[in-house]
Amino acid sequence: MSIQVFTGMTIFLALLAFVCLYRAYVGPTAADRVVSINVITTKVTVLIALISVITEQNAFIDVALIYSMMGFIATIAVSKFIEKGKLY
């Protein structure tokens, strides 16, 4: 694939992340907000991976993996807090 296709995909995913940010702001329930923040985390992870492909720097893949793990742990923590009211 060409660089223009990857750049277009990056711009499109960034715009969709802003749509999810709107849903996180407006979302009527806490569960809606958690899901939309999780979707934003996933989109940012894919954006980092696309930037890694565009710039041909493999170090960004490590950053994407760490970011996705942090997003997963944050989602679990917030979900547990919503369900039980405490994290421990």
Task: Give a verbal description of the structure.
This protein is mainly alpha-helical. The protein contains three helices and no strands. The chain has helices spanning 3-26, 30-55, 59-84. Helix 1 (3-26) packs antiparallel against helix 2 and helix 2 (30-55) runs antiparallel to helix 3. The chain is flat.
Comma- or semicolon-separated keywords:
mainly alpha, 88 residues, 86% helix, single chain, 0% strand, 3 helices
Task: Provide a brief overview of the structure.
This protein has three helices and no strands. It is an all-alpha fold and 88 residues long.
Q: Layout of SSEs?
A:
Blueprint: H1 3-26, H2 30-55, H3 59-84
Helix pairs in contact: 1-2, 2-3
Principal-axes shape call: flat
Q: C-alpha Rg, in Å?
A: 15 Å
Q: In sequence order, what are the helices and strands, one letter per element?
A: HHH
Question: What is the overall pLDDT average?
Answer: 91
Number of strands: 0
Helix amount: over 70%
Largest sheet: none
DSSP helical segment count: 3
Instruction: Give the oligomeric state of the chains in this entry, treating copies of one chain as homo and distinct chains as hetero.
Output: single chain
Low-confidence parts, pLDDT < 50 over ≥5 residues? none
How far apart, in Å, are the first and last alpha carbons? 47 Å
The proportion of strand residues reads under 5%
